[in-house]
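We include this case.
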Amino acid sequence: MTNIEQISIYDLLPPNAQADPTVSAAALSLDSHMRELTQKAKDLSFYRRLLEGKITDAEADERAWQDHVDFWDTSLPLEQKIQLLLNAKEFHRIKGTPAAIEDLITILFGEGKVEEWFEYGGVPGYYRVTTNNPEVTLDRAQEFYRAVESVTRLSAHLEEVILSQTESLQLYFGTGMVVNEHIIIR
């Protein structure tokens, strides 16, 4: 299969037209215009530009409204908006599942894991979220809660958010061994 960007009008001409200097010169002169039109046609596709990350904030906000993205905040960085738009259909497909919550947390706050009530011995209908992102503090707690609730089924309730933190520590340990031999001579 040939890429349309690499096609020359001259190559499309039959051999007798290629032999004519006037026709071949005209075909070669149109190639640059065809490449320009091809690029403009590519730029019309929103999803192509979305995949390439070449959309604006205003376009992202408009498309979020059109695609009914569950959680949307206009103050989000453009990279997160792009990820939400790319996953909008998948979020609607798996809405109400732990996977939807985990995917949304991963996009917005980094890593996160959902544990349902039966996995930790809680009250039926509840779940908890564990994340290791230190940015999930009281300042962003309301945003975190809104994001999680936007993809949670109505019969499930967020019980708690656990912020786990790992630190690298330099631990030193040592061992010692004493070997004694008592000889008693009488």
